[in-house]
Specification:
This protein is mostly beta strands and about 500 residues long. It has 2 domains: about 90 residues, Ubiquitin-like (UB roll), CATH 3.10.20; about 290 residues, Beta Barrel (Porin). The chain is about 15% helix and about 50% strand. The longest helix is centred in the first third of the chain and has 17 residues.
Length: about 500
C-alpha cells in the first residue's frame, strides 16, 4: 500500500474533479464546437434544417493532385459526402475544416479547398493537393541519453554516446496511407528494427493492422539510481544489454476522432552478470533475463484542430496492459491516462492544460520496471537532469501561449517542399508532478514521494514534416534553473 502524506491530495477524488472540469470546459471550447459545423445538414435535427435559409446539395467532390493516394482514402477523412445537404452560410467553415482534416494526414505539402456553383441548388467541392515525398531516407542521429540536456551538460557532449544510423520510411506504400519503416543504428546502441502499418484492411475503412519487430544491444547500461541520477556500467569487450521485441496490433476507427488499438507483443531483455552483481534487484530473483507477453489496449480521442501541434480541442488517451511474466518478473497490470484541453482565449492567445498519469499494479516490481519521471515525455519541466523510479505518477502542465508568427511561405523551388509553414509561439508555463514509490530506495533519491513543481517561459517553433523545437527556461522547487531543449510536443 502506498503511504501518502497528510498534506497531499486524494488521487481518486482529484481525478474525478479534473475530469468534470475538463468536460465542462470542453463543452464550450471552439475546438469541439467544430464537431457541430462538420455535420451535414441532412443528418441534423429538423428544427436546425428549417433554420438554415440557404441550402446547397454537394453534387460532386473533385480531387486532383493525388497521384499516389487513393481517392477513397482521402474521402474517408472528409466531413462531407456527395449528396449531402449543407448550409451555404457555413460553407467557409466546412472548407476550412476539411483542409485541416487533410492536413492532419501529414502527406500533403499544399491543400486548396474551394467550392463552385453548380445550378441554383448545388455546389461542387474541389480539393487540389500536392503530395509530399513519401520515401524518406535519412541519416538518423540519436542520443543514448534521455534527452539532449543530459548529453550536453552531464555527458560533456560525448560523441561516443551518439547512435549513427539509417532510417528509411515509406509513408504511403500502396496509396492507402500504409507506412513501412526500417531503421538500423551503430555506435553506442546497435539496433535493427522494422514495422508496417496499414490503417485500412476492410472495405468500410474502419479496421487496420500493424506489425513490428526489432533487436538492440549496448555495451553500457544504467543499472541503478542514486541522487536521482542514473548510474552506468560499461564493458568494452562485450555487450551488457540485449533486447528483442515483436508484436502485432489491430486498429478500429469507428469515427474520425476516435480509435481503438489492441495489441499482443513479446519482449525479451538480457543483461550481463556484472549488472546483477551491481544491482541484484535489476530483474526479479537476481535473474539476468526478463521475458514477458503483453496484451494491451489503447483508446484515443483526438478532437483537436491540429494533430501535430494542437491549439483548440480535446484529446484523451487511455490505455491498459497486462504483462504475463515468463522470467525475471511477476505478472503486471498497467493503466494510464492522458487528457489534453486546448482553448483559444482571445486573438492570438491560447492556453493548454495537460494531465498525464500511470499506475502499475505489481507489488514486487524489479528496478527495470519502475521508470516514472525522466523518460520520454514523462517529466516535470525543470527536472530534465533527474529520474524518479515509482509505481504511480501524475503530471499536470498549464501553458499560456501567444501566436507571434504563423506564416506559410509559398512557391519554394523544391518539388516536395513547395510550401513552408513556420509557427512561433512564445509561452509561460507551470508544471506539477508527484511520483509515489513504496519500494525501499537509496536515501539520496529524494524526489520520489515529493511534490515537484516548476514554472518558466519558452518558445515553440513548428515547421514542415512535423518538425518541432521547444526552447524553455524553467525554475524548479529546488531553486535550480536552466534552459532546456526538446524536439517533441508537451
Amino acid at each position: 500500500m502506498v503511504r501518502i502524506p497528510e498534506a497531499s491530495f486524494h488521487p481518486v477524488q482529484t481525478v474525478k474533479s479534473l475530469l468534470l472540469i475538463l468536460l465542462s470546459l470542453s463543452a464550450g471550447s471552439s475546438g469541439l464546437a467544430q464537431g457541430h459545423s462538420e455535420t451535414p445538414l441532412t443528418t441534423r435535427p429538423l428544427q436546425e434544417r428549417q433554420a438554415c435559409q440557404h441550402t446547397r446539395r454537394v453534387s460532386a467532390i473533385v480531387l486532383s493532385g493525388n497521384k499516389r493516394t487513393h481517392s477513397n482514402v482521402i474521402r474517408r477523412e472528409m466531413s462531407v459526402r456527395e449528396g449531402d445537404l449543407i448550409c451555404a452560410d457555413s460553407l467557409e467553415t466546412i472548407l476550412h475544416l476539411n483542409y485541416q482534416r487533410l492536413y492532419n494526414l501529414n502527406i500533403f505539402t499544399d491543400i486548396v479547398c474551394t467550392a463552385q456553383e453548380g445550378d441554383s441548388s448545388s455546389i461542387v467541392l474541389s480539393v487540389a493537393l500536392k503530395e509530399q515525398w513519401f520515401i524518406i531516407p535519412q541519416a538518423d542521429l540519436q542520443l543514448a541519453d534521455r534527452n539532449i540536456n543530459v548529453w550536453w551538460n552531464e555527458q560533456n557532449r560525448d560523441l561516443s554516446r551518439i547512435n549513427f544510423g539509417l532510417y528509411v520510411q515509406h509513408k504511403n506504400v500502396s496509396g492507402r496511407l500504409d507506412r513501412l519503416s526500417v531503421s538500423t543504428h551503430l555506435g553506442y546502441t546497435q539496433q535493427l528494427a522494422a514495422s508496417y502499418f496499414r490503417p485500412y484492411i476492410d472495405r468500410k475503412q474502419k479496421l487496420g493492422l500493424g506489425i513490428t519487430a526489432g533487436y538492440s544491444r549496448s555495451r553500457e547500461l544504467a543499472y541503478a539510481t542514486a541522487g536521482n541520477k542514473l548510474l552506468f556500467t560499461r564493458h568494452d569487450n562485450d555487450f551488457l544489454y540485449h533486447n528483442f521485441f515483436s508484436g502485432a496490433s489491430l486498429y478500429y476507427r469507428p469515427a474520425y476522432h476516435s480509435r481503438h488499438v489492441a495489441g499482443l507483443a513479446y519482449y525479451q531483455y538480457r543483461v550481463g552478470d556484472t549488472v546483477v552483481q551491481l544491482n541484484n534487484d535489476f530483474f526479479k530473483d537476481k535473474s539476468t533475463r526478463l521475458q514477458y507477453l503483453e496484451l494491451a489496449y489503447r483508446y484515443e480521442y483526438n478532437g483537436v484542430d491540429n494533430w501535430n501541434y494542437p491549439r483548440r480541442g480535446l484529446k484523451i488517451v487511455a490505455n491498459a496492459a497486462y504483462r504475463h511474466g515468463l522470467s525475471g518478473m511477476d505478472n503486471q497490470v498497467l493503466t494510464g491516462l492522458e487528457l489534453g484541453l486546448f482553448r483559444k482565449l482571445a486573438n492570438r492567445w491560447y492556453t493548454s492544460f495537460i494531465l498525464r498519469g500511470r499506475s502499475s499494479l505489481l507489488n514486487d516490481d524489479p528496478y527495470f520496471l519502475r521508470t516514472a519521471f525522466g523518460y520520454k515525455s514523462n517529466f516535470v519541466r525543470g527536472y530534465e537532469y533527474y529520474v524518479v523510479e515509482a509505481r504511480h505518477f501524475g503530471i499536470g502542465r498549464i501553458s499560456l501561449k501567444y501566436e507571434a508568427l504563423r506564416r506559410q511561405y509559398h512557391h519554394l523551388p523544391f518539388r516536395y517542399l513547395p510550401e513552408l509553414p513556420v509557427w512561433i509561439y512564445p509561452k509561460i508555463f507551470f508544471d506539477a508532478g508527484y511520483a509515489a514509490n513504496n519500494k525501499p530506495q537509496s536515501s539520496t533519491n529524494t524526489l520520489a514521494n515529493t511534490l515537484l513543481y516548476s514554472f518558466g517561459v519558452g518558445v515553440d517553433i513548428i515547421t514542415a514534416y512535423d518538425l518541432k523545437l521547444r526552447i524553455e527556461f524553467a525554475v524548479n522547487h529546488l531553486g535550480e534553473n536552466g534552459v532546456y531543449l526538446h524536439a517533441n510536443s508537451e
